[in-house]
Design a protein that fits this description.
Distance between the termini: 20 Å
Largest sheet: none
Strand content: under 5%
Number of domains: 1
Radius of gyration: 18 Å
Helix content: over 70%
Structural class: mainly alpha
Number of strands: 0
Order of helices and strands: HHHHHHHH
Shape: globular
Mean pLDDT: 91
Low-confidence stretches: none
């Protein structure tokens, strides 16, 4: 039973560790650089607000996923966040040096783009589950928990 709990928590830690603590801490320690990067996709006056919003999403949604409180909605929000950041800051199609061999900033950015989408896929699996029936469950109760640390299956309890 303890192993089950540790595995469930460990899997969630691996999924959110990109954001909490690393990306959130980086935004705090390097706020001006983060705002400068945000200014590449938004007006300079709005960039600090975007960074604060991103920081809030990264911290609060990660904590919700770890705690199992409205974790499915939090996972959906982080999936959207991953897609938006990929589209805004991993624009490999705009680089002039996309090559399959040799050094290529475009290819590096392409892999980062795909990694963002893959992480979004992991969050979508957490939000919706692994099958179509669990999508309906999410739509019926989007603020519900996936009960990640339950040790008895609800079907077994009844």
């Amino acid at each position: 039973m303890l192993l089950n709990l540790l595995l469930a928590f460990g899997a969630r830690c691996l999924l959110v560790m990109l954001f909490l603590p690393f990306s959130a801490l980086d935004k705090i320690l390097n706020f001006n650089q983060a705002a400068g990067q945000a200014a590449e996709a938004a007006p300079r006056a709005v960039a600090p607000i975007l960074i604060f919003c991103g920081l809030g999403v990264e911290i609060l949604m990660s904590l919700a996923i770890l705690a199992g409180i409205a974790d499915r909605l939090a996972a959906l929000i982080l999936a959207g966040y991953c897609v938006v950041t990929a589209l805004l800051w991993k624009q490999f199609w705009r680089t002039s040096d996309f090559r399959l061999k040799g050094e290529s900033r475009g290819r590096e950015m392409f892999w980062d783009f795909l990694k963002n989408l893959a992480v979004a896929g992991g969050f979508l699996m957490l939000a919706f589950g692994a099958n179509a029936a669990s999508v309906r469950s999410f739509l019926e109760n989007p603020l519900g928990s996936s009960h990640p640390y339950a040790t008895i299956d609800a079907r077994e309890a009844s």
